Amino acid sequence: MELWLQHLTQALALPEYGLSTVFVVSFISATLLPLGSEPVVFGLVKLNPDMFWPAVLVATAGNTLGGALDWWLGYGAHKVVDKYSHSSHHGRAIRWLEKLGPKACLLAWLPAVGDPLCAVAGWLKFPFWPCVAYMAIGKFARYFMMTGALLWAFPGGFKFLGG
Fold it and tell me: Signal peptide location in the record (predicted)?
């Protein structure tokens, strides 16, 4: 099992699989599963510095599509969540989100609350395409800033990763 995992890890590290790995990990990390995609983007860019823009754009696309999936899940879950709509915290949060509208999806990049926010936007039946556009803007800004900051902070890479 360990040998198989090592071969899989080596295969995914190859440049021809790098962008597809970034896409898959960023897509999955945008769902409600706890997974961070920034280390994968940073690793690919550290190994292939000329891949900065493709990696940031592919991560943005994967993470935005994952956010769009969250929107649809929220949209479909509207009736299930309706029975919990009488809580005071729920009411305040809903009023705040309704006031912001699709622009609230700019915050989709935030850890812990960003992904559920996309689902709530769908549940509130905010317009899909404006939400996706705002998600993409926020997620692009996150990948651009995080990857740039990591490259600046760790120009030699992480020594324990062989960088």
Answer: none
Treating both helix axes as pointing N-terminal to C-terminal, what angle do 15-30 and 52-76 enclose, rounded to 10 degrees?
Answer: 30
User: pLDDT-based confidence at 33, cuts 50/70/90?
Assistant: confident
Q: How far apart are CA 104 and CA 120, in angstroms?
A: 10
Rounded Cα distance between 47 and 129, Å, is: 35
Query: CA 63 → CA 40, 71, 76, 82, 93, distances in Å?
Result: 13, 12, 20, 27, 24
Determine the Cα–Cα distance for residues 74 and 54; give it in Å rounded to an integer. 30
pTM of the model: 0.74
Rounded CA-CA distance 117/67 in Å is: 9
Report the distance separating Cα 41 and Cα 55, nearest Å: 6
